[in-house]
Structure formats: C-alpha cells, structure tokens
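User: Design a sequence. Structure:
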C-alpha cells in the first residue's frame, strides 16, 4: 500500500473512469456535536477481512468524480474533495465486513458550528480499490438548547417485551439501539407546542401541562416544525431530526435498564405516575374524575425521564402492521412503517396500572385524538 502522501499524489480526476458502485456503504455512528465525539463506520459484508481506508475532507464536496491511480483498478467514484482529502484511518474490516468506528472528537468551541466535512471509505484488495457508494456530509451542530430539556441516551441493548403482559408484547426479544440520540425529559408541553405550531387543541389548559387531544399527524407536524427551527439555529446534527420515538426507542427509554413491569419496580403508585389507581384517580379533577398533571411532577426513572407511565399516552413513530407477536430473534433499530394504525405507549391519566406497564402496547388510527393522548420527542437518526 502506498504511503498517505503517495496515495494523495496519485489521485486525479478522470471523467472516463468507471463509476459503477459495488456495495460498501457509510454509516453515521454518532453525530458531530460540540463537545462530543462524532464517529463513522463503513460496512461491506462481501469484503470481510479486507483492508479499508477512510478519507476525510473539508469543506463538504457535493459532487462525485472518477479517479485514476496508476497500476490499480478503481471501482466507484470519489465523493470527497480530491484536493483536500486526507487519510483519516486505515485497518481491516471485521468478520461481518464492518470497520471499527472512526472517532472524531469535536471541541466545545462555538465557532465550529457550521463547519462542514465529508467522510468516505474504500476497500483495498490486491490491485482493486472500491469506494463506498455514499459519503457522509457532516456539519457540526450545537447541542439541543436547555429549554427543550433533552436527555442524551447512549446506544445499548435491552430485552423488549414481557412474558407477563403476553399477547402482542411477546415474545421477549433482544433489541439493540445502535446510535445515540436525545429524548425529551418530559412530555411535550402546551407551551412548547404553541411555540412551534401556534395553536393548541388541549382540553386541560396550562403551559406546563402536556399537550393532548392531538392526532398522530399533529404530533408529526410539531416534530417537523421543531426540526426546521433547530436546523435554522444550527442545532440539528447532520443525519438527525426531531421526530416521534420508534416503539423500541420508547421502551428503551421507559425501562432505563429496568427489567421489571414498571421502571419503578413490580408495582405502580400515585407518587410514581398519574394514572387511575385502584383507590381512584392519582390527579383528581374535572368532571371526568381525573386530569393531566404538570409534567415532571412524578418521580423520574433511572435516566432522569418523567411520566413515561401515565399522564398522557404517547404517540410513537411506528405503524401497527397487525402482526400479533414480536420477532423471536434479536434485532437492531427496529421500525415498522407498514400499517394503517399507529402505536401508542405508556397509558394516560385514565389508564390502569396494567395499561401503563413498560411493555404494554396499544394502537389507534392516526386521525384519532382525545384528552388522554400526547407525545414526547426524540432528536434521533432520520428514518426512511
């Protein structure tokens, strides 16, 4: 393999070079945010054990060019700027064809917000170089503002579902969340909803009460408006959006490492959640006997998140595909986008403790709305 200097010297644009892509793909493992560490990987199962090279260049290069390297066959096109590209990492793909994560610490320097760069990998076997069929065009972002009360959640694995709940919550299976994300410490409040959408349909009025009586579509509209405003402020990481949590992300956050039926243990009390207990409504009021409570008025789980049990049931991103059971084997980042209905989790102020369990699932028409349904947002990888 040539030295980095020789490699850079030999790269030259070549309009006649073959541009066919042959499989390697890039993946953002962690976003570029001030004071945090961005990371990137490349994967190509057909190239397991082969040499890989990771290139980085700045500024963002929007195009793609063919390249020619004397004595080598080049497949694919270069999507980072040939004039500024540097070798950022070299190594071997593992048995699954994935590179180790290329970590890039981002200093907590406000002037870096808006700094853009590209990352693209290639595999090298014998005299054949194959470029990844895509690149990662990254722009450094500021972290979410304090006013959104977002909590950073690391990647990890957990046992999703419950044998006790059974039915649609079975079988218990291992789910791995592969990328970090942020989640709202609280359910979306009426004040937050009004700031983004300018009208609140809530029945129980109060700026610090959760927004309710919203359809799934209205919850998505709020997330889209939040994404647009945070992008304009330079606080939306590349490849991430504000959206509803997937069902798996929701349960991962709700459990916060707990394997019990509720994240507080084997029983639920009114100090833990706002729900309809055997002794009556935990938050009495209104002509209906109960009502929503100020967000955060009940105990937080181990990750500092409030009201995942009770208060308002929370819309999730996933569709309901009418499949009764979960998959039996382990999965990564599951997301169901086929089906007429949408998943709802957590139970509301009128729900029983059983309905509020971490694994309990429900589904409704995305057009449905009632004063027991609201939402929570995540800032997480954009999904198809």
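Assistant: Done.
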């Amino acid at each position: 393999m040539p030295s980095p200097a020789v490699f850079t010297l030999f790269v030259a644009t070549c309009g006649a070079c073959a541009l066919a892509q042959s499989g390697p793909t890039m993946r953002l493992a962690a976003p570029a945010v001030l004071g945090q560490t961005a990371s990137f990987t490349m994967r190509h199962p057909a190239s397991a054990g082969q040499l890989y090279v990771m290139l980085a260049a700045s500024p963002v290069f929007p195009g793609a060019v063919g390249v020619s390297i004397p004595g080598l066959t080049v497949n694919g096109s270069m999507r980072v700027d040939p004039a500024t590209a540097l070798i950022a990492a070299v190594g071997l793909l593992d048995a699954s064809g994935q590179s180790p994560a290329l970590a890039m610490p981002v200093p907590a320097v406000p002037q870096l917000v808006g700094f853009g760069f590209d990352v693209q990998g290639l595999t090298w076997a014998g005299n054949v170089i194959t470029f990844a069929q895509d690149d990662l065009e990254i722009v450094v972002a500021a972290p979410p503002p304090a006013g959104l009360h977002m909590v950073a959640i690391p990647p990890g694995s957990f046992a999703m579902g419950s044998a006790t709940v059974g039915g649609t919550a079975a079988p218990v299976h291992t789910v791995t969340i592969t990328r970090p994300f942020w989640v709202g410490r609280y359910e979306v409040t009426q004040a937050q909803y009004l700031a983004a959408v300018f009208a609140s349909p809530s029945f129980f009025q109060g700026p610090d009460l959760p927004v309710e009586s919203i359809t799934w579509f209205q919850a998505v509209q709020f997330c889209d408006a939040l994404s647009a405003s945070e992008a304009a402020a330079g606080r939306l990481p590349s490849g991430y959006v504000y959206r509803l949590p997937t069902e798996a992300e929701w349960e991962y956050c709700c459990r916060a490492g707990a394997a019990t039926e509720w994240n507080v243990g084997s029983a639920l009390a009114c100090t833990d959640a706002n729900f309809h207990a055997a002794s009556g409504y935990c938050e009495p009021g209104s002509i209906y006997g109960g009502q929503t409570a100020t967000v955060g008025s009940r105990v937080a789980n181990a990750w500092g998140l409030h009201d995942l049990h009770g208060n308002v049931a929370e819309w999730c991103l996933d569709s309901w595909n009418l499949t009764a059971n979960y998959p039996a084997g382990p999965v990564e980042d599951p997301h169901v986008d086929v089906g007429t209905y949408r998943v709802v989790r957590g139970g509301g102020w009128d729900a029983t403790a059983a309905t509020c369990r971490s694994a309990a699932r429900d589904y409704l028409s995305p057009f449905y709305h009632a004063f027991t349904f609201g939402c929570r947002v995540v800032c997480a990888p954009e999904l198809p």
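The domain at 4-139 is CATH 2.60.40.2470 (Immunoglobulin-like). The helical segments are 4-10, 190-197, 216-232, 247-255.
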